[in-house]
Model the fold of this input.
Amino acid sequence: MSKAQGRLSGLLGRSVRDLFSRSRGVLALDIGSSCVKLLETDGPPGNIRLLTAGIAPLPPTAVQNNLIQDFDVVAETIRDLVKQTGARSREVVTAVPGPAVMIKKIHLPSGSDEANFDQQVMVEAGNAIPEHLDNVTLDYQVLGYTERDELEVLLVAVKKDIVNSYTSVIRDAGLVPVIVDVDYFALENMFELNYDLEESHVVGLVNVGARYCSINILRSGRSSFTGDIPVGGAEFTDVLMRNLGVSPEEAEVLKAGGTAGDLGRDQIEAALTPAVQFLVEEIHRALSFYWRSDAEEPLSAVYLSGGTARTAGLARMLSERLETPVEVADPLARVTLGRVVDAEFVRRNATSLAVTIGLAARRVGDKT
Ligand SMILES: Nc1ncnc2c1ncn2[C@@H]1O[C@H](COP(=O)(O)OP(=O)(O)OP(=O)(O)O)[C@@H](O)[C@H]1O
Ligand SMILES: [Mg+2]
Done:
């Protein structure tokens, strides 16, 4: 199987090759639980140019339980972002949240008949996925041959009502959804675009959003584990509101290093530190559960992204706990900035844009 065949084709089933080989503009849209991130890019996937960028907040009720709940609010937010950024493309690459996705590896005998390959995968998927296949959107990626000469295939399944809630809201906003990806894989593409991975290295990618962390462990540049932890920056907001009596808006200012009223930074740190420590413990637990360093190579480094990655002290505390270098990823390291994009805005918000950049960079390395 060629690499191109082995790539996820997009949950909507349409090949993305056509879309990108022409290098025309595309909208990458990350609908998070706290905000919507929109980028317009052009250029080939491995060499993307950022044309426009925007981020708009969402009320906490708009996206819940991995579903769009308030279609009007989300569609209007997307429409406003398109207007505000002046984006002209209409075709959208988006992602469903990792916790909504079922990911399984299956093995097929080598020499599997290419003509019936889809059918064989469907049969195995019926056994592996704990949902009736009529209710899920299914995609797969051939990973390669195992030591026992079996074909290893990654299955990715999402309940149709979840995919439909994301595609419907994009249509409601007057746009055309063409690819639905998963944030774990977008993160991997963001990393592949911006970093050179040494063959033997094991790297942890951890995107810390508002309500959950996505984790993708890459070994020799290939995803070895994906998973999530249901903790994010919204917990920090709650802690500050509860302990210091501040409003949600004030809590956002405090999280970003500011102050409110006569609160001193030492009081703010004292309130925030136990919550940050809790997050560090949870990430440590997940990484050590899924990556047993005694049996395999140790993690070489962890790259943090997502809005909450900017929390003061988080990277340092995680590095101390993991005894591994931890750095905040730069999703723009190898992205060309177009003439009109607000460079200061995108650099300031770069960590929040990690998934969105990964969506824009889909199929890095596929030249066909
Ligand atoms: N400078 C900052 N310091 C600390 N936290 C920040 C900063 N800027 C943004 N955040 C927090 O980052 C979170 C938003 O990050 P992000 O955009 O990655 O989340 P999301 O995609 O909306 O959430 P999710 O993916 O969990 O649904 C919010 O909780 C916000 O308060
Ligand atoms: Mg997110």
Notes: Residues 80 and 280 are 36 Å apart (CA to CA). The first helix runs from residue 3 to 6. Residues 1-9, 12-22, 363-368 have pLDDT under 50 and may be disordered. The domain at 196-328 is CATH 3.30.420.40 (Nucleotidyltransferase; domain 5).
